[in-house]
Each structure stands twice: as C-alpha cells, then as structure tokens.
Amino acid sequence: MKIAIIGAGSTYTPELMEGIIKRSGSLPVRELALMDIDARKLDIVGDLSARMAAAAGMDCRVVKTQELDEALSGADFVLGQIRVGKLPARVLDEQIPLKYGMIGQETCGIGGFFKAMRTIPVMLDIARRMETLCPDAWLINFSNPAGILTEAILNHSKIKMLGLCNVPYNMTKSIRSKMELPEARLTYVGLNHLSWITGIEQDGRDYLQDALAQGLNSETMKNIPSSGFSQELVQTIGAIPSSYLEYYYFKNKKLDLLKKAEQSRGQRCMEIEEELLGLYEDAKLHTKPELLASRGGANYSEVAISLVDAIWNDKQEEHVVNLLNQGALDFMEDTDAVEITAVIGKDGAKPIPVRGLDNAHIRDYMRMVKAYERETVAAAVGGSEEAAMRALLMNPLVGDYDAARACFDELKEAHRDYLPQFRS
Q: Are strands 77-80 and 2-6 parallel, antiparallel or unpaired?
C-alpha cells in the first residue's frame, strides 16, 4: 500500500503516523509519500515521521516531496490536510469579520466561507490529478471546511472520496462514557460542524430523553472556548448538539468573547505550532509529544486510519463520515453532502438511512445551512460574486447585506493571492 499525505508539513502528521504504526499489522504500508509546499515544515515533520516509522520497526519507505504528482503517483490512499494561506490566512478570517460585527471563525460564518473559497480550487486540482495519476485511490479529506469540500469534490470530480472530522468520534465517545452505555448505538445527524445526536439506543431502549433531562453535553473541542448548553436548551432542541453549534445558538455571546479576546485562536495556534516544530526538531524524539493534544486534533489518527483500515480490509464497519446523502435523509437532496453514519468497506461508504426524524428544528436548520453551502460551492467553482453574496445572506452568522458586502470586499483583497476565481 502507498499512502500519500498532502499537507504533510502539518503538525498533525505525527497523529497520522501514530495511527499508521498502530495498525501496521493490518495495513501493509510500503511507501509513505509526504508532500507539502512548505520546505521547512516538510523537513522537520517528515524527519520525525521517518524516525517514528523506524522506531516502530516498519518496513516502509518514507519520501518527502514538494511535488504533488510525485506524491500522488500510484497511491492507494490520499490523506488531505491542507491549509491554503497557512495560519496567517486563518487569523485574517478570524479578525477582519469582527470589524463588521460578525463572528470570525475558521469554518463557520464568513471566515469559514473564505477558507472554502481558498481551499476548494486547490482540492479540485488535487482531485483532477488523482483522476490521472491514481484513479482507483481514495481521498480521505479532513481539510476544513470538510463538509463543503466534500460537497465540491464529489459533485465536481470523478474520484472516490470521504470527508472526515474528529468531532463525531469525540462526541459519540464522550456521550457513551457520560451515560455509562459503552455499547450504545447513537443516531448522528447533520452537516459538518452542524450536527446533533438524536438517539442513544442500547438493549432495546432509547436513552435520549434521559440524557436531555440531565442536560447532557458532549465533550467540548479544545479549539472552541465553550460555555456549554443548558438543560433548558437541549430540551428545547430535543437533541444533543455538537459544540460548534454554540456559534449559532449563542451568537451574541460568542461575538462578544471574540472581540474581547487578547488573541485569536489562529494566533494561539501559530504559537503552539512553533513550539511543536521546536520539539519535532529533536533528533531523539520518535513519538508524538503531548503538546499536540492542545492543537485540537485529538483522535484524528484513530478516525482517519481506522477509516483506511475499514476500506482496505473490507471491514463493513460503521463510521460517521461526510458523503453524498443518496436518500439517507429524506428531507435532503441526494447530491447534498451530509455528515451521518455509514457502513465502510472495500466499495466505500453506504449511508445508513435515518427514517422518521420528527425534529423540525434539525431538518429546517440543515436545509437552511445546506442552501448556504450549495451557493458557497457555486461561488468557489464559478467565481461568481453574486453567488458569494447569496451564500452569505443565507448564512445564520452573516445575514446583513451591507456588512457582508464590505467584509467580503476586505477579505477578498486580503486573500487575493489565493482566490484565482475572483480575478478579473
């Protein structure tokens, strides 16, 4: 097996290496192609990755390259974790919207919109090179915004692809633990970073109402400053929301906190990244350092590599992934990318239908945000500013036309080097 990691200079890569090493008995990885356009980070992270493989006794060739085609050629799996414009672009996405009274966040609102604008053209280019160089390979993408990228890639390319996020894994794991129901089957419904738990079944009983009565919250992501959901709120919703929904349900509070913060999350991540790269440079280090957990990528190795394992070994396991709906949710279009449970095997993912979802709040919220996502993809692919504004007017974290237009113009100028679709 050949695995290509695109964006391998990311400080998350040791997480993936840990997963590959852990599953080396079932995944015969003979070549690992590490590709990044940042030579410094590629050297540091790539050398640590090679040391980790060697220390684990893996018979695996580790190749560092800045050439996309070299990495993709003959690959069986392509793992995508790119950040176009790197962390400085994220900081702009976080800070500029605050001037216009809008939340600045890397996947939600207008900040997430511009991350999609920068990332979709690059990911589609990767997909088109895969069509030529490794047409049978699977792209497992966890670049953000993962759901919108899934929407773009599966509707505008011919490759096999699944979108991935660690939120579902962390969320379901924490709920099983808090409810002391280790074998519970959870119903997970939503879009990426807009999702809910609507069922907790074990031994023929659904414990959802018990969880709602307790005001149960799932584990909060480390990259989200969280205040949690009250008992009243979860009962009003009738489901357990993911922590990202704090941006929607507590918009004013979140905006106020972001305005008062001494530094943005992106600025803090830049500091953590440099600390990590300093650790990674130690030639004696051959394991993942604990500091990486503070970067927000906990359990990515388990999520990503277990998915590769399920496909390669035809495990027919259930995983929560981003994929095309294909009738699984009867209130969404077949071509909508959704985040739900699917059975994973050698033929890919078969979404498990969710029937009889009687929660109108979830249905309507998903349809509203999906309308935003469809227009976002149209704007990214076609370079239409009209589509961009239509998208932003449908986003619950934007809405106001004058603010959206002014913020759009400033962010477009700030990111002009990464937005070829908007160049006249």
A: parallel
C-alpha 234/C-alpha 250 separation (Å) is 13
- Catalytic machinery residues: 244
Q: Contact, 44 vs 64, CB < 8 A?
A: no
Say whether pTM exceeds 0.90: yes
| Strand runs labelled E in 46-174 | 61-65, 77-80, 138-141, 160-163
Is 285 in contact with 52 (CB distance < 8 Å)?
no
Who contacts 346 (Cβ-Cβ below 8 Å, separation ≥6)?
Answer: 311, 312, 314
Would you say 171 and 332 are in contact if contact means Cβ atoms under 8 Å apart?
A: no
| CB-count exposure of residue 359 (10 Å: 0-12, 13-18, 19+) | middle
Q: β-pairing, 61-65 with 240-241?
A: unpaired
- The token pair at 155 is 């509707």
pLDDT in tens, 206-251: 999 999 999 999 876 555 667 889 999 999 999 999 999 999 999 9
> From CA 84, how far away is CA 80, in angstroms rounded?
12
* Beta pairing partners, 321: 340
DSSP 76: S
Q: 194-202 and 205-206 as β-strands: parallel, antiparallel, unpaired? A: antiparallel
* Residue pLDDT, tens place only, 254-277: 999 999 999 999 999 999 999 999
Q: Using CA atoms, how far apart are residues 104 and 111, in angstroms rounded to an integer?
A: 5
Cα–Cα dist 372/232, whole Å: 28
Residues 42 and 138: their CA atoms lie apart, in Å, by 23
Q: For residue 130, give the amino acid letter.
A: M
Q: How far apart are CA 52 and CA 56, in angstroms?
A: 6
Cis? peptide before 97, omega within 30° of 0: no
Which of 25, 27, 73 lies closest to 314 in space, CA to CA? Answer: 27
Q: How far apart are CA 343 and CA 329, in angstroms?
A: 15
Give the integer Cα–Cα distance in Å for 104 and 28: 42
d(CA 245, CA 161): 26
Give pLDDT tens digits for 326-347. 999 999 999 999 999 999 999 9
